Amino acid sequence: IASLEEQLKDKLKEVFGYSSFRGTQEAIIKNILDGRNTFVIMPTGAGKSLCYQLPALILDGAAIVISPLIALMKNQVDQLNAVGVNAQFLNSTLTKTEMNRVKRETLSGEVQLLYVAPESLTKEENIEFLKKANISFAAIDEAHCISEWGHDFRPEYRRIKQILAQISNMPVIALTATATPKVQIDIQKNLQMEEADIFKSSFNRENLYYEVRPKQHTKKQLVKFVKSQKGKSGIVYCLSRKKVEEIANLLQVNDVKAAPYHAGLDAAVRIKNQDDFLNEEVDVIVATIAFGMGIDKPDVRFVVHYDTPKSLEGYYQETGRAGRDGLEGNCIMFYSYNDIIKLEKFNKDKTVTERDNARVLLDEMVSYAESSLCRRKQLLHYFGESYEHDCNFCDNCLKPREKFDGEEYVQWVLRA
Ligand code: ADP
Ligand code: MG
């Protein structure tokens, strides 16, 4: 009889084609197989999906997987189907007939992974159906969506636990790449899993170089930088759709193979531009933050934030898309106090709490951008990790500059 370790390794090879586990994947999988609540905090690209996919294949019944984006779910379902796993999704894009088939196959025990959009999970008829099904566990991917302190808060996510509890007393696996202590506590409270076993790996990305540049002659700086990266894949993030179009155009007229990506584009155009980027017909994708979640292109060599981002978490997620293959990744962010003011204006229609939260996040961004301390140290500190020495691989370590002009900072502090 094969040991559990051998069994896991065989499945890993047979289904996913990998010969060894990465990091703590195996320990996490065993924890899930033991039926324990599990909280996985690992950076983007670390391989979190496998942590729930593999045990779902071993346990009886279907694992529910909750993920915020239909595109993300479809991607995983397609990949699993391609290797012969019965994974299905339940969301609003299905026809009545498809929906019935998925339900039938789930009730008969054929489905091993059932991906459910949070909106679908809250539907009464689906809850009734899930009550009848044999569910092995629930995996909540991108669990930071639960927290208002996260960079991608989804109100529906806060109801997940309550609904799962109605279905059955199943173990819950929460996964996220957002590791700030505030978000972590929120997630655990909301999912009532203060007792969960936590698997948190380091967020340090040694191969990423971090730099913050003042937003002056930004277009010129951008063109110069992108040209210095000729033929390499990169992402340029902008705050607005309009800016995306403008910058994509700027790069194109400067002979860079660039394409825009934002939610305002026709779906067909958006998909084509994304595919062109993935297939390297296009070198640079200029995008709003709508681009990137679930995109798995290993050789993105640079990520530029043309506009100052609204939180360090979001920023870190986005820069995390560079250098997934472990090779060089340049992360350049343009910073200006004006951008911060603009961002603050976006919040004026929000509730008081939302506005206060957003302001705290902006404050953190300002102090990061204006600091002359090692960037990596600051970022890791932000994620609750201590990093003792200076990294020698960020702008502040490699080219210590004169102290930031205090004027802007004073304005910022006094702004209220
Ligand atoms: P995350 O959700 O943590 O961002 P993913 O689950 O999307 O990461 O995985 C990132 C990439 O790593 C995927 O291409 C995946 O197939 C690959 N991967 C995961 N586990 C392994 C492994 N044990 N060996 C090799 N590649 C792996
Ligand atoms: Mg993931």
Automatic annotation (TrEMBL):
It catalyses: Couples ATP hydrolysis with the unwinding of duplex DNA by translocating in the 3'-5' direction. Its cofactor is Mg(2+); Zn(2+). Residues 218-373 form the Helicase C-terminal domain. The keyword Transport does not apply. Signal peptide: none annotated. The keyword Zinc applies. It is an enzyme of class 5 (isomerase). Residues 29-197 form the Helicase ATP-binding domain. Its EC number is 5.6.2.4. Keywords: ATP-binding, DNA damage, DNA recombination, DNA repair, DNA-binding, Helicase, Hydrolase, Isomerase, Metal-binding, Nucleotide-binding, Zinc. One of its GO terms (molecular function) is hydrolase activity. Belongs to the helicase family. RecQ subfamily. This is DNA helicase RecQ. It comes from Imperialibacter roseus. The lineage of its organism: Bacteria, Pseudomonadati, Bacteroidota, Cytophagia, Cytophagales.
